[in-house]
Amino acid sequence: MDWLDQVKWDAQGLVPVIAQEHGTKDVLMFAWMNREALAATAARGQAVYYSRSRQRLWHKGEESGHFQQVHEMRLDCDADVVLLSVTQHGHDPSIACHTGRHSCFFQRLDTRAPAPQWQAVEPVLKDPESIYK
Amino acid sequence: MDWLDQVKWDAQGLVPVIAQEHGTKDVLMFAWMNREALAATAARGQAVYYSRSRQRLWHKGEESGHFQQVHEMRLDCDADVVLLSVTQHGHDPSIACHTGRHSCFFQRLDTRAPAPQWQAVEPVLKDPESIYK
C-alpha cells in the first residue's frame, strides 16, 4: 500500500501537521498538508504545506527565506496527524512565525490575572516587514 | 474579552490541541477541544479533550488512569491551535497512546525502502488490554 494512501485524509483531503524543531524540540508551528504537499515535502526534504486561505501549495520560506529542512516525518496511531522534525533555516535564532517570533505558540495563558488571559511572552526577533518585502 | 472568546473555534466549534511532555519535550498526542473542554482543562489542571467519535467530553485518563497534568497552555499566532505542556501520569515510562506506547507518533517514514513506508519504531510499554479493562 502506498505510504500516501495510509494517511487518513479528512473530508477536505487534508491532514494536520505539527513542526517540531530538531535541536530544541520546541513546537514551532501547526499547518495542513494535502496529498500533493506531503509528497512534495518527502521529495524535496523541505516542508511544503497547503495554505487553506490561499488554496494552494505553500513552500514554507518561499517569501521569507525561512525554509524548514525535514529530518524525520512521523504519523500518529490513527494515521491522521503528521509530526515533522525540522531545522528552521533563515535566521539565527530561528524564526518560524510570520510575526517574526521563534515559534507560533507565543501566547501563554496567564491564570494569575483577575481573569485568565492570553499573554504574548516571546520576543519578536525580526520585524515582519523586513521579512516579507 | 474573555480568554475563551479569543480562541478562533472552527466551523464545528473545535480547536486542535497538541500535548507536549513537560520534561522531555516529546510531542505525545494530538486531539481536539471544544469550548467546554478548554474551560474544564483550565479549571481542573488536567487535559479534558472533546472526542469527535464519541461526541462528548473526554477527560484523558478517565479509563486508563493516564491523566495529563497541565503546566502551561499556549495559543498560536492565529489563535486557532492550542499547545499544552503536560506531565503524563499513570505509568513510568509515560504512556500517552491508546496502543500502550509513549507517544502517538510512533510511525516513522522510512525512505530507504524500495518505496517509502511508515514503520512502527517505538515499543509497546504496556499491553492495551491491561490498560483498558
From TrEMBL, chains A, B:
Gene Ontology cellular component annotations, sorted alphabetically: cytoplasm
Keyword Iron: no
Gene3D superfamilies the record matches: Phosphoribosyl-AMP cyclohydrolase (3.10.20.810)
Binding site for Zn(2+): 77, 97, 104
Pathway named in the protein's UniProt entry: Amino-acid biosynthesis; L-histidine biosynthesis; L-histidine from 5-phospho-alpha-D-ribose 1-diphosphate: step 2/9; Amino-acid biosynthesis; L-histidine biosynthesis; L-histidine from 5-phospho-alpha-D-ribose 1-diphosphate: step 3/9
Coarse class of the protein's main subcellular location: cytoplasm
Key words of the record: Amino-acid biosynthesis, Cytoplasm, Histidine biosynthesis, Hydrolase, Magnesium, Metal-binding, Zinc
Gene Ontology BP, a term: L-histidine biosynthetic process
Binding site for Mg(2+): 76, 78, 80
Domain Phosphoribosyl-AMP cyclohydrolase: start-end pairs: 29-106
Keyword Hydrolase set for record: yes
Assembly, per entry: Homodimer.
Family: In the C-terminal section; belongs to the PRA-PH family. In the N-terminal section; belongs to the PRA-CH family.
Function of the molecule: Catalyzes the hydrolysis of the adenine ring of phosphoribosyl-AMP.
Protein name: Phosphoribosyl-AMP cyclohydrolase
Organism of derivation: Rubrivivax rivuli
